[in-house]
């Protein structure tokens, strides 16, 4: 009973049995009404023939001999007929029954009047004068006495002999055939339905088993079939397979993201402790030895502590910005602006830092209109991070160069700087935040390690890909492209 096709089969059996019962009742009722109407129509003149054959009421008295003679003749023609003589009020004045059956004093005259009117739909059932019997079809005709209606000949067409014959027929061949046909129909439909349900639910059973296996071990994902063949169950099966594949992939990404998050927290905690411990050390030295230190020594301690506080602030700002980029709370506000002017502004902003290391910061002019469509604030952040990163990792008396070029309808920017280069094994990971925080390329460089991760996130929002080329002896270059106004038009 736990199998779906078994439940369907049982339900179908119950419905078929109920429908068979309803059909049997409708057939029996319809057959009875059909025979009643047929009997009443064929025997409608019987009462009239009896009433016209001889006077039955003479001067208000019933001629019982004439009634008996006429009833005997009528019953020879129709043995199931029972003949009664009624007065106008429905009282039974005489009967053709043999023996002395118990009779009613009077019968309901409403069916009699309805049949005589000719407006009623057949069959019309009247009361059987015999006590304890149901209503039956009848024939009726007025009885005249000296030209006045004195009563009625009331003929029950389905008398006792008729009832016995009906009971015999009901248990006869016809009823057995009907019951056998209903049983055979129910059984055949049940078997066919059970087989059809079993075939239709077989794939659903396999899908259910696959779901259960996936619930037990979500690493065991079935393959994906993208074909359009098959019915709804096939589509459901393929949809589940694709869904399970995606879920497994998402679970893997969540696991990897959780691992990276833990590593990031560990690495960021280390970077937060480093400037914080340095600040605390310099400030403690200043507090303990401030009486013994010269003014320039105290100034140097304060400047160093301030530099570490700035480094701590940069790290916190980068973490906050990266979190907003991860959560999608930052949406690009696209507008037209000159990429060349923005590059010069960023270079001017970082020129002091470059001069402090005797680094030449050069922005090469574009070979055309460098107007692009992007978020100027976010692209400024990209350029600041790239140039600042280049200055940090470029040896003193070096150079950092930016070039703007056109590639099709895009304006591309390339940042080239003379750093010793990045090993090829590290290149695939330099935009990973956990990797950037963990590496220690230069102890002298006060890098917080999240700049390139922020660059990658911002350019992803602009649907732009950043590419890096590096050779240990020649330096490193970063390339990305933004759509120009000409492309947008």
Write the layout of secondary structure elements.
Blueprint: H1 4-42, H2 46-53, E1 57-58, E2 61-62, H3 64-77, E3 82-87, E4 92-95, H4 110-117, E5 125-126, E6 136-145, E7 148-156, H5 160-170, H6 173-216, H7 232-289, H8 295-327, E8 335-338, H9 339-349, H10 351-355, E9 360-363, E10 371-374, H11 376-393, E11 399-407, E12 410-417, H12 433-438, H13 451-461, E13 467-471, E14 475-483, H14 485-488
Helix pairs in contact: 1-6, 6-7, 7-8, 8-13, 9-11, 11-13
Index terms:
55% helix; 14 helices; five-stranded antiparallel beta sheet; rod-shaped; Beta-Lactamase; single chain; alpha+beta; 489 residues; 14 strands; Helix Hairpins
Condensed summary:
This protein has 489 residues and is of the alpha+beta class. The chain has helices at 4-42, 46-53, 64-77, 110-117, 160-170, 173-216, 232-289, 295-327, 339-349, 351-355, 376-393, 433-438, 451-461, 485-488; strands at 57-58, 61-62, 82-87, 92-95, 125-126, 136-145, 148-156, 335-338, 360-363, 371-374, 399-407, 410-417, 467-471, 475-483.
Give a verbal description of the structure:
The protein has 489 residues and is α+β, with helices and mostly antiparallel strands. It folds into four domains: 1-43 and 163-216, no CATH class; 45-156, Beta-Lactamase; 232-323, Signal transduction histidine kinase, dimerisation/phosphotransfer (DHp) domain (Helix Hairpins, Orthogonal Bundle), CATH 1.10.287.130; 332-488, Histidine kinase-like ATPase, C-terminal domain (Heat Shock Protein 90). Helices cover 55% and strands 16% of the residues. It has helices at residues 4-42, 46-53, 64-77, 110-117, 160-170, 173-216, 232-289, 295-327, 339-349, 351-355, 376-393, 433-438, 451-461, 485-488; strands at 57-58, 61-62, 82-87, 92-95, 125-126, 136-145, 148-156, 335-338, 360-363, 371-374, 399-407, 410-417, 467-471, 475-483. The strands form four sheets. The protein has a five-stranded antiparallel β-sheet with strand order 4-3-7-6-5, sandwiched between helices. A five-stranded mixed β-sheet has the order 9-11-12-14-13. A hairpin with a 3-residue loop joins strand 13 and strand 14 (475-483). Helix 6 (173-216) runs parallel beside helix 7 (232-289), helix 7 (232-289) packs antiparallel against helix 8 (295-327) and helix 11 (376-393) packs antiparallel against helix 13 (451-461).
């Amino acid at each position: 009973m736990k199998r779906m096709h078994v439940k369907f089969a049982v339900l179908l059996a119950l419905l078929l049995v109920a429908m068979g019962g309803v059909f049997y009742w409708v057939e029996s009722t319809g057959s009875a009404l059909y025979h009643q109407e047929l009997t009443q129509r064929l025997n409608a003149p019987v009462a009239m023939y009896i009433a016209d054959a001889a006077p039955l009421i003479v001067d208000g008295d019933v001629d019982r001999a004439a009634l008996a003679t006429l009833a005997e003749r009528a019953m020879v023609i129709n043995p199931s007929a029972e003949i009664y003589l009624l007065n106008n009020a429905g009282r039974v004045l005489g009967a053709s029954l043999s023996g002395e059956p118990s009779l009613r004093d009077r019968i309901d005259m409403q069916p009699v009047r309805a049949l005589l009117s000719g407006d009623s739909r057949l069959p019309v059932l009247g009361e059987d004068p015999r006590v304890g019997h149901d209503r039956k079809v009848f024939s009726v005709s007025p009885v005249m006495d000296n030209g006045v209606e004195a009563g009625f000949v009331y003929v029950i067409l389905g008398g006792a002999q008729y009832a016995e014959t009906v009971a015999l027929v009901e248990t006869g061949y016809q009823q057995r055939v009907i019951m056998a046909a209903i049983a055979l129909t129910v059984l055949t439909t049940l078997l066919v339905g059970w087989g059809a349900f079993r075939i239709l639910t077989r794939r659903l059973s396999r899908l259910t088993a696959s779901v259960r296996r996936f619930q037990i071990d979500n690493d065991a994902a079935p393959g994906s079939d993208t074909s359009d063949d098959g019915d709804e169950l096939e589509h459901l099966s393929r949809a589940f397979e694709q869904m399970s594949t995606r879920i497994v992939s998402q679970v893997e990404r969540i696991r990897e993201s959780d691992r990276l998050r833990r590593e990031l927290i560990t690495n960021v905690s280390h970077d937060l402790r480093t400037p914080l411990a340095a600040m605390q050390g310099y400030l403690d030295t200043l507090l303990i030895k401030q009486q013994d230190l010269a003014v320039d020594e105290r100034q140097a301690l304060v400047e160093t502590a301030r530099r570490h506080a700035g480094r701590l602030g940069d790290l916190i700002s980068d973490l906050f910005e990266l979190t907003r980029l991860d959560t999608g709370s930052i949406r690009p506000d696209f507008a037209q602006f000159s990429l060349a002017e923005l590059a010069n502004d960023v270079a001017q902003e970082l020129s002091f830092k470059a001069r402090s290391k005797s680094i030449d910061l050069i922005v090469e002019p574009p070979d055309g209109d460098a107007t692009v469509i992007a978020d100027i604030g976010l692209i400024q952040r990209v350029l600041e991070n790239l140039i600042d990163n280049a200055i940090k990792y470029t040896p003193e008396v070096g150079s950092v160069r930016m070039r703007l070029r056109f590639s099709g309808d895009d304006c591309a920017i390339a940042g080239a700087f003379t750093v010793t280069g990045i090993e090829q094994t590290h290149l695939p990971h330099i935009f990973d935040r956990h990797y950037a925080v963990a590496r220690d390329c230069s102890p002298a460089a006060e890098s917080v390690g999240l700049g390139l991760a922020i660059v990658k996130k911002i350019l992803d929002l602009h649907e732009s890909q950043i590419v890096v080329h590096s050779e240990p002896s020649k330096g490193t270059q970063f390339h990305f492209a933004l759509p120009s106004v000409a492309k947008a038009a």
